[in-house]
Automatic annotation (TrEMBL):
GO molecular function: methyltransferase activity
Methyltransferase listed as a keyword: yes
Methyltransferase domain ranges (all copies): 60-149
GO biological-process terms attached to the record: methylation
Superkingdom classification of source: Bacteria
UniProt-listed Pfam families: Methyltransf_25
Protein name as catalogued: Class I SAM-dependent methyltransferase
Organism lineage: Bacteria, Bacillati, Actinomycetota, Actinomycetes, Micromonosporales
Family matches, as Gene3D superfamilies: Vaccinia Virus protein VP39
Length: 240
């Protein structure tokens, strides 16, 4: 549908009527040929910003998918880099693309790590978590980080109400809510369920000190507002 190498419309429909895990198992072989993969511009802008805060030792990519975040971690981390995802299909593709990394299959709402990492990232994953699930995600990342560790991720800024993007994302989210109301298993993917203020509050509740900076290099909306913010959530150095 998106390119000759990408999934067909039928394949996307089958995926959308599956669970999140099985849907991504199905999509994995063609995922990198879709617009759902985090663009290189976002990865590069994130790595550039973090380069001023590092270097770091061990890095973790939460909900790693096919491993795009490894391009950021490997440019910043001097030690082990690890990806975690609950889709076996996505992990299989990531393992093939980045054989030197460590891969763990696990649910991000119950991460199996304790103070193992200095840097944690995630790209394009928050939409797969309902607001009631985000605290468990953030608490798990907090446990996974060493004292002083950093959790960071780009988050889309709301587009102006007059823009096409506003109405496209609104329409998509409404369609997904209708789909999940009438079809099981649910497929959780929403573009507008992670407002910046709520995410910062939830990170603070998990123990982080969280700030947000405009992600330079990711572009701006026509009204001049940034397209993306970069969340920088620091675990206190004296955390016990």
């Amino acid at each position: 549908m998106f390119s000759p190498q990408g999934p067909s419309l039928r394949e996307l429909c089958v995926q959308a009527l599956s669970s999140v895990e099985h849907g991504y198992d199905l999509l994995a072989p063609k995922f990198d040929h879709t617009p759902f993969r985090t663009p290189e511009s976002i990865l590069g802008a994130t790595a550039h910003t973090l380069s001023e805060l590092g270097p770091f030792d061990h890095g973790l990519d939460v909900c790693c998918g096919t491993g795009a975040g490894m391009l950021v971690l490997r440019s910043l981390c001097r030690g082990r880099v690890t990806g975690v995802d609950f889709s076996a299909g996505m992990l299989g593709r990531a393992r093939s693309a980045h054989p030197g990394a460590t891969w763990v299959r696990a649910d991000a709402r119950a991460l199996p790590f304790t103070e193992d990492f200095d840097l944690a990232v995630t790209f394009g994953a928050l939409g797969h978590f309902l607001s009631a699930e985000r605290p468990a995600l953030f608490e798990g990342v907090y446990r996974a980080l060493r004292p002083g560790g950093l959790f960071t991720f780009p988050i889309g800024a709301p587009p102006p109400v007059t823009s096409v993007s506003h109405w496209v994302t609104l329409g998509f989210d409404l369609a997904m809510r209708v789909r999940n109301a009438v079809w099981r298993p649910p497929f959780v993917m929403y573009y507008r369920n992670s407002p910046l203020t709520a995410v910062r509050d939830e990170l603070a509740a998990a123990g982080f000190t969280a700030t947000a900076a405009a992600l330079t290099g990711s572009g701006r909306h026509r009204n001049g507002s940034p397209r993306y913010w970069l969340i920088l959530a620091r675990k206190p150095a004296d955390a016990g």
